[in-house]
Specification:
single chain, 207 residues, mainly beta, OB fold (Dihydrolipoamide Acetyltransferase, E2P), 9-stranded mixed sheet, two-stranded antiparallel sheet, 11 strands, 39% strand, globular
């Protein structure tokens, strides 16, 4: 039986928290993991929350037909309400996206994965994306049911990111440690391009 094509989603614009989009984070996942948390206001998040809830409900209904015990599993969604340092709700939601940098298939093949980066005009770029950047994330929602934890949920796998407002990774305030000098001057209008040939046809989304 052919594998079912996963539905793709695009988030509203939100604020990036701890993004690892240029290079994978290997601290807890040896093969590396691209990831980002996205902060959305409750109003912006409402439609996405409903869509993801429907995706999980549809998967759960089919899974329960095969294994009735799954009906007792806890549902785990890939987002949570944001809480500030005082323990109060901020009125925003945090959505968690992650994609392993290497995928090993059952046939023994290994695929290197990347998250394609685009600017506001959908031009490929290699800019270093830092926390605080305003982004849209294109992703697929992959359902799972784990007997070991008695849980059923969704994992959000990002395939592409559109950068609407960039906060560059590093650089920032460090520049204030220097004085202006004669020499190389960066062209602020120059765009950096990257080869996004690793993206599949499914990744070519209309942001």
């Amino acid at each position: 039986m052919a594998q079912q094509k996963r539905k793709q989603f695009v988030t509203p614009s939100g604020v990036a928290i701890y993004p690892w989009l240029n290079t994978p984070d290997t601290k807890f996942v040896p093969e590396g993991e691209f990831k980002v948390n996205l902060r959305l206001s409750a109003e912006e998040a409402e439609q996405l929350i409903n869509q993801l809830g429907q995706e999980l409900d549809n998967f759960a209904a089919e899974a329960i037909k095969k294994d009735p015990k799954i009906k007792q599993f806890d549902k785990r969604m890939p987002f949570e309400e944001e809480i500030d340092d005082n323990g109060d709700l901020t009125g925003s939601y945090i959505f968690r996206f992650k994609q392993k940098a290497k995928i090993n298939t059952k046939s023994g093949d290994t695929f290197d994965m990347k998250v394609a980066l685009f600017d506001a005009k959908r031009t490929p770029t290699t800019v270093k994306v830092g926390g605080g950047s305003t982004l849209k994330v294109a992703f697929t929602a992959w359902p799972y049911a784990m007997a070991s934890s008695r849980s059923i949920g969704l994992t959000l796998r990002p395939s592409a990111v559109q950068i609407l407002q960039l906060v560059e990774l590093s650089g920032g305030d460090d520049a204030n440690m220097f004085d202006d000098e004669d020499g190389f001057e960066a062209d602020a209008s120059a765009a950096a391009f990257s080869d996004t040939s690793t993206a599949t046809d499914e990744d070519q989304l209309d942001f």
